[in-house]
Structure formats: C-alpha cells, structure tokens
Amino acid sequence: MGEAAQIPFLDISREEGREGWKALCTKVREICEMHGCFLIKYDKVPKSLHEDMSMAMKTLFDLPEETKKKYKDPRPFNSYISNYPKAPLLECFGIDDATMLDSAQAFTNLLWPEGNPNFCGVFNSMNSKMLELSFINLKMILEGFSMGKYYDTYVENSQSSCRVMKYNVPPSNDSATGLLGHTDKGFLTILCQNEVHGLEVLSKEGNWIQVVVPEGSFVVLVGDVLKAWSNGRLHAAEHRVVMSGNKERYSCGLFLVPKDELKIEVPEELVDKERPLKYRPFTYPEFLSHCYADVTSDDALETYAGV
Ligand SMILES: O=C(O)CCC(=O)C(=O)O
Ligand SMILES: [Fe+2]
C-alpha cells in the first residue's frame, strides 16, 4: 500500500472549446502515459447521485441469494457471481447497455417483479453519466495526441457494459483479496464506489498504490485496447481490490469496449523509426477469447498482439 497522492486528480468539468481545454487534454494524455489511472471530478454529476447510487447498489445486493441467482447471462462473467474461488469476497452482476432505459428496466424487473422505479432510475442515470464521462475521457486522450479526428469513428464503434460489485467484509481482521490484479481489456473504464476504499493500482515502479477516491469523484483506467492503439504509449495500469476493515465496499464499473467488428490498429501517425509497430491489428472478441483461454499470462496483450 502506498501514498494516495501519487494518483493524479483532475477537475474535468471544463467544457470543450473553453479556455484551457487543450491544456487539459495534454495533461490527460500525459497522465495516461505515466500512470494509466487517475481520479476525476465532474460537476455535472451531483453528489446526491453518487449517494443514491451507493444506496441502490446496497439495495441490489441485499436481495436474497435465490433472487440474485435469477440473473443469468450466457456470456462469461456476466451472470450473477458469488463464491468465486479466486475472489471469495466478491459478488457481481454484469449488465450490457445499462445506459439504455430498456436494459436497466429489464434487469430491474427480473430482480423486483413488483417493480423498483427508484433503483432503475438511479442505476440508469449513473450509467448514462458514466458513459458520457467515458466519451469525454476518450476525446481528451485523442485530442491530447492531436488526433481528435478519430473520435467519431471510435464512438460509433464502441459499446458499453457495466459491472456492479459488492466486496464483503473479510472474515478475519487481516486484509484479504477482493479482486485479483488485472488490466481492463477495452478502451477505458470509469468506476464509482461507495465510501469504502480498496482499489489499488500498480505503479510503473512496481508499487501497489491505494486509490483514495474523494466523495463524488470517479476513477478512470486505461484499458489494453487503448494501449495497443497508442502503440504502447498509453499505460494500461494493473489494478486489484484489497479489502480490510468492517464495511462492505460497493463499486460500479462502466467499460467502454470496441464493437465486435472494429479492427483495432495503430494509426500510422503513431509509428515511426523510434517507435516501430508494436501491435498487429486485432478485433476485441478474438483478444478476449485469448485472455479467457490464457489465464496464466501476465500480459495478454503482448502475447496475443505483440509483434
Ligand atoms: O471494484 C473496483 O473498484 C474495481 C473493479 C475492477 O477492476 C473491474 O471490475 O475490472
Ligand atoms: Fe478492472
């Protein structure tokens, strides 16, 4: 565990076109190159929505186990998961398109056949805000490379999935694994959480740094796809969750990922003599299959697409 100060914190409420926007984009790019992880404040999400989301996540996981188990999805790791041997404290749900009211509604109706408009509204609003944030961050990163022209194509060719997580209190007084170290696979991830910390990020120097998330802010993580796109300039930070203390942790991740058919390739602007091509083109589903099959590999991107 390390010093919280090492995770940069940015206010990204400033709008595109306003003074300081370009400097903000350059800063975001630099942070993504150095750390691959940062904290953001965004004043278009009221504090009350963060509080309501924490309550909504608690309400969801407070449902009886039999009710939660009704949520099944054919894709790996999307169904309701609990008692997973590698992460015994974790319970989670994976939901695609929770930013669309229909999907949020279907999820809510399955778990609360009598309806729960409050949960549905809060869950859907927070996911929509997090999707907005993922697009803003993607835009800032691309503009940071003066390559904003790629933004529309990437937005059109991206989709989002959401994961809602509860980490139970460790059985003894010691700290315990909540989630094993990994990199996120897609473009980028936005996380929100209740007041219980536990996320840790591995620095380039090899130290695990605790991410202390100020109330009402979000975490941004660079994923493997953006690392590949940038020809290895951006850092996809390895992260994990470590639980200690006597309070449950709740978090929600919005994963911005490429659509299945998008070919992820390094743009020619990012290849030169000093930086020859590092990754061959690939599609996201092929990369994911490799990741699921080769769980022992520390760096799936290198073994899969490295040239
Ligand atoms: O719970 C968290 O804060 C992190 C979750 C995470 O890393 C993930 O779901 O990929
Ligand atoms: Fe993650």
TrEMBL record:
The keyword ATP-binding does not apply. Keywords: Iron, Metal-binding, Oxidoreductase. Residues 158-258 form the Fe2OG dioxygenase domain. Pfam families: 2OG-FeII_Oxy (PF03171), DIOX_N (PF14226). The keyword Oxidoreductase applies. InterPro entries: DIOX_N, IPNS-like_FE2OG_OXY, IPNS-like_sf, Iron_ascorbate_oxido_reductase, Oxoglu/Fe-dep_dioxygenase_dom. Gene3D superfamilies: B-lactam Antibiotic, Isopenicillin N Synthase, Chain. It comes from the Eukaryota. GO terms for molecular function: metal ion binding; oxidoreductase activity. 2-oxoglutarate-dependent dioxygenase essential for auxin catabolism and maintenance of auxin homeostasis in reproductive organs. Catalyzes the irreversible oxidation of indole-3-acetic acid (IAA) to the biologically inactive 2-oxoindole-3-acetic acid (OxIAA). Belongs to the iron/ascorbate-dependent oxidoreductase family. This is 2-oxoglutarate-dependent dioxygenase DAO.
